[in-house]
Fold this protein.
Amino acid sequence: MTHQGDIWVLADDRAGNVGQCLGVAEALGRPFTIKSIAYDGWARLPNILRGASLLGVAAASRAGLTAPWPRLVIAAGRRTAPVARWIKRQSAAKLVQIMDPGPGGRGDFDLIAVPRHDDSGLAGARVLPITGAPHRVTAAKLAEAAELWRDRFASLPRPWVAVIVGGDTRKRPFTPAMATDLGRRAGALAVGGSLLVTTSRRTSPQAEAALLGTVVEPRFIHSWAAGGDNPYFGFLALADILVVTGDSVSMACEACASPAPVYLYAPAGWVVDKHARLHRQLYDQGYARPLPEAGQEVAPWRHPPLNAAADIAAMVERMLP
């Protein structure tokens, strides 16, 4: 039996990475401890120079990395890899890494879960290829969200077509024209029903205005800028159809954990190659489909739930005493 503290989750400032680690930890169903990792300027050094050390870790975080040591460490992203390797030197802990830790020290990791869309080329007995990214969406959480949000949508006619909107990335904007196109296509799926829309912190005011100008009543709108209760999990739990912009790996994978059909909006040339590879894999494996043009006939369909966290957890169970 694993006791409190026997599993450590390394949690740095990359919220997406932390969410993936927590998804795996929660899927294990065992107690775990979150170890916050903050960095100093030395963290900019490549891992091959940082080695198996705490170089680059801020003093306050170092103070929390003491005995009793864990038997399992779950980490994600390259910057946590030297920390995990250092812990193994102190404790002989098993190391589970999500995504390639980078050159130098890969052999220290007992399991490396590599998203296929990263196209890293890693292979071997300790490498687990996964589709998409681990997440924290489970049947239990969806059931809880359904109870919380069902009455808020109850007055709206069905089908409920939920539109989950990301927005601008560093190099590729989500333009007002794209937002209008998204609203028009999503609206075509909701004939006789309602659109449920939520924007995000990356949705520009201009794109949001264009989208909402296209979405007609009956509708439910949650604007990130306006604040208020976020219906995201309610959408995942209750929507009859999910429409998700393709700029976020986590949004796409979390949507595919829902029982509803998932359509991705990703116009040609908008998303980076890595995201485009993920979309193709989701399409090929039956988890999602491209958002059809308005007027295109759409037949009902279903998909299995996508849960890479559970796949990783099953492998970890075999590693634990």
About this structure: The longest strand covers residues 7-11. The chain has two domains: 7-131+309-319, 139-290. Residues 139-290 form a domain with the Rossmann fold fold (CATH 3.40.50.2000).
